[in-house]
Design a protein that fits this description.
Radius of gyration of chain B: 20 Å
Structural class of chain A: alpha/beta
Helix content of chain B: over 70%
Largest interface: A-B, 24 and 16 residues
Number of strands of chain B: 0
Distance between the termini of chain B: 28 Å
Helix content of chain A: 25-40%
Strand order of the largest sheet of chain A: 6-7-8-3-9-10
Shape of chain B: elongated
Order of helices and strands of chain B: HHHHHHHHH
Shape of chain A: globular
Oligomer: heterodimer
Structural class of chain B: mainly alpha
Strand content of chain B: under 5%
Number of helices of chain A: 9
Strand content of chain A: 15-25%
Largest sheet of chain A: 6 strands, mixed
């Protein structure tokens, strides 16, 4: 992955299994969000591809890419709710675009999705009228609108108080357990990484490549790489002699 | 617009109505004021020059022809570039900063279809209507000054105005305004879509949208005027 001639990350190779809560982690500026953009179709890689069920995304025709995108749901860092629409309209937009549901059914479905994230009764609120945590939850309701196979989260708990962050983590776990949704999260919040992640990739900004993959709980204890252990132990790891 | 013409563009019909309301009804006060005053200024200059030749009544011709053919389309479009074109750039630019455009893209919705088509349609529809209204306001403004400064009755002035307006003048003014509507929308939306991801970038995109809009309006007005003259319109 690169911006022009500036290489962000290279030689990345990892697998996300169905039902995983997969963490993309690493220090600031290592290219976590860029990797997410490549995975969700916002930025093409300078080399290589992203495979979904064995099918290459970037090699596919544009129409096929659009079809594949409908199986994704994405929660952006700030929620990225469309500010000119109410919460219900935000959730309704993908349903209006891609389903043949009637207005009443869509309205009911929006209320249900918003209730799932604890926003029952906020259907007619505009994004500017709710808090940051509520925006994230509303963004999640929108991401879930089409019952996606894969949910992507960019810094899901950034800017949230510890209780809201814990509630969001619980919600992610519940989604995975009840719907079998695969979840990919970009984060460097250790509490979230250890409490919900069961698979991960660690990106290094110095060597510009991945240093480790696997369950973050195992990597924290057993990774042979000092940089990885040090990151997961909040800078308290000791180098192996 | 090609995708719109073939029915392939995905956008909300309700968005078109919302944009029409923003670009149309809400622009009426400023269009009224500017057009009325421009009409008055034209009439004042016309009266001062034509009265010397005993042709003060031709002020009605000057105001009507100049307003309908050029001034109303150009002034309305410039007002809309400063008002609506700038708003488009700021709105779309802010959406880019807030990742709202990315959110559309990840859902497989083309931001060009979804955001640009309703705005383009709204301005292509509304600027011609506003231009017709501006022409009327300009003529009224001119009449207020003309009637107070020349020795002519209201009926004489109105008859002179009607006699001076040809179908060709109306057509050229209307065609110009349609072209201006598309150009103002294009400048605003293009600058918004090309905006960077900072607050400063939104300000710069807004400024560029207004400047680009005005330059496009004046250049295309010059080109269209030459074309109309060559076609004898």
């Amino acid at each position: 992955m690169s911006y022009g001639d500036f290489v962000i990350q290279k030689d990345l190779n990892f697998t996300v299994r169905r039902g995983d809560i997969f963490i993309i982690m690493g220090g600031s500026g290592c290219g976590k969000s860029t990797l997410l953009k490549v995975m969700i179709g916002l930025k093409s890689p300078s080399a290589g591809d992203v495979c979904y069920g064995g099918e290459e995304f970037w090699a596919a025709a544009l129409a096929r890419q659009e079809e594949m995108k409908r199986k994704f749901g994405t929660l952006f860092q700030g929620g990225a709710l469309w500010s000119g629409m109410t919460l219900a309209e935000n959730v309704a937009l993908p349903l209006k675009q891609y389903t043949r549901l009637g207005d009443l059914e869509i309205r009911e479905l929006c209320a249900y999705k918003l209730a799932l994230v604890g926003l029952a009764g906020f259907e007619d609120f505009y994004p500017s009228e709710i808090s940051g945590g509520m925006k994230k939850r509303a963004g999640l309701a929108r991401a879930m609108a089409m019952d996606p196979d894969i949910l992507f989260f960019d810094e899901s708990s950034a800017g949230l108080d510890p209780i809201s962050a814990k509630l969001l983590d619980d919600l992610i776990l519940e989604l995975r357990d009840s719907l079998g949704t695969t979840v990919v999260i970009v984060t460097h919040e250790l509490a979230s990484i250890f409490s919900i992640g069961n698979n991960s990739v660690f990106l290094d900004p110095i060597t510009k490549t991945q240093l480790a993959t696997g369950d973050p709980k195992d990597l924290g204890d057993q990774s042979p790489n000092f940089v990885v252990r040090n990151f997961l132990m909040r800078g308290t790891a000791t180098p192996v002699e | 617009m090609g995708r719109f013409a073939t029915g392939g563009a995905k956008y909300l019909k309700s968005d078109v109505w919302q944009q029409i309301e923003e670009a149309g009804a809400k622009a009426l006060p400023v269009v009224s004021l500017i057009s009325f005053l421009i009409g008055m200024i034209f009439a004042f200059v016309g009266v001062m020059q034509l009265r010397a030749f005993g042709a003060g009544i031709y002020t009605a011709n000057l105001v009507a022809v100049a307003t309908i053919r050029d001034m109303a389309p150009i002034m309305t479009a410039i007002i809309m570039a400063g008002r609506t074109g700038a708003a488009y750039a700021a709105e779309i630019g802010t959406m880019k900063v807030n990742e709202e455009i990315d959110a559309l893209t990840t859902l497989g919705i083309d931001p060009m279809d979804f955001l640009v088509t309703p705005r383009m349609l709204a301005l292509i529809l509304m600027i011609p209507l506003l231009t017709m209204y501006a022409s009327l306001m300009g003529i009224i403004g001119g009449a207020v000054v003309g009637l107070s400064m020349i020795d002519a009755s209201f009926v004489q002035y109105v008859n002179q105005t009607i006699a001076s307006v040809t179908l060709g003048s109306l057509f050229s003014g209307l065609l110009m305004s349609i072209v201006f509507g598309a150009l103002v929308a294009l400048a605003g939306c293009q600058q918004g879509m090309a905006c960077g991801t900072s607050a400063m970038a939104v300000g710069q995109a807004t400024t560029r949208a207004v400047v680009m809009g005005i330059v496009l309006i004046v250049v295309s007005a010059a080109i269209l005027t030459i074309i109309f003259i060559n076609l004898g319109i």
